[in-house]
Amino acid sequence: MGRFEEAEVKGREALAVACRLGLKRSIAAYNNNLGELYKDQKRWSEALSYYLESYHAAVEAGAEPVVANTINNIGMTLIELGRPDEALEWLGQGLTIAEKTQQLKQQYLNYRYRAHAYEAKGEYDKAFANFRKHQDLRDLAITEETRKKIVELQTKFKYESKIRDAEIYRLRNVELKNSNRRLRNALERVKVLSGLVPICAHCKKIRDDKGFWTQLEVFIAQHSDAVFSHGVCPDCMRQFYPDLLSAKKELSSKRSYR
Which of 18, 77, 133, 215 could form an S-S bond across to 48 if both were Cys, CB 3.0 to 4.6 Å? Predict the structure, then answer.
């Protein structure tokens, strides 16, 4: 964010805590961070001082990958300070460690800085050879990173596919259970409404399997999806409501006359 003064304060605070606790790896990391801070401001002498401190702490911690990275930073800084011979000495040591620990990134960075150092010395053939090596290793590292990323994405895809398939299987089972339950209920209703149904010859009530007599419409509604709407048929109208039927006929005649 370009807030170098704040970054420096926080970096020094972190370094002080690491030194107080004797955390060699953290001391190496925080010194390297401060070196990066000064490098970004092109304060090369101060950057070199912190890179060297980072290097010594990383060596004491036995952290060879950190050592290789720090040596590359030292070499790059020495080149900026116009000291290419010293840079090549450091970079030779760093390349050995990077190859030993199989750090492709540190290897191709090392070759790039070596190319810059030889270029500063005017040895362009060596500069070209080292830059070609840098390019080859960089392409290899990118290919390796791409392969790892592909494997990672494939693993995630397979995992997510299994989760998705499991969820689909679960939902299908839920739907199947619901369908089976609806089917069982329907079959139960069909079973109840099939065969001989005891019905009263006079009031038409039906006797259920528990021996209780129930009105016909209530019984059918309980054992099916049917919904009843009551009315009066013409025969019952004549038998039970003759006055109402006569009044209805009279009203109908008046309407026809009008």
Answer: 77
| β partners of residue 207 | 213
**42-70 per-position pLDDT tens digit:** 989 999 999 999 999 989 888 888 888 89
**Total structural domains within the chain:** 1
Residue 206 lies in a domain: no
What pLDDT sits at residue 256?
A: 55
CB within 8 Å of 104: residues ≥ 6 apart: 137, 140, 141, 144
Residue 36 within a domain: yes
Q: How far is CA 132 from CA 102, 142, 186, 204, in A?
A: 19, 15, 79, 103
Residue 216 lies in a domain: no
In this prediction the pTM is 0.53
Report the distance separating Cα 204 and Cα 196, nearest Å: 14
CATH at residue 57: 1.25.40.10
CA distance linking residue 56 with residue 19, whole number of Å: 13
Output the CA torsion 245→251→255→258 (10° steps). Answer: 140
CA-CA distance, 235 to 163, in Å (whole number)? 67
Length of the chain equals 258
Instruction: Tell me how far the alpha carbon of residue 156 is from its chain's centroid.
Output: 9
Residue 178 lies in a domain: no
Range of the domain at 115: 4-155
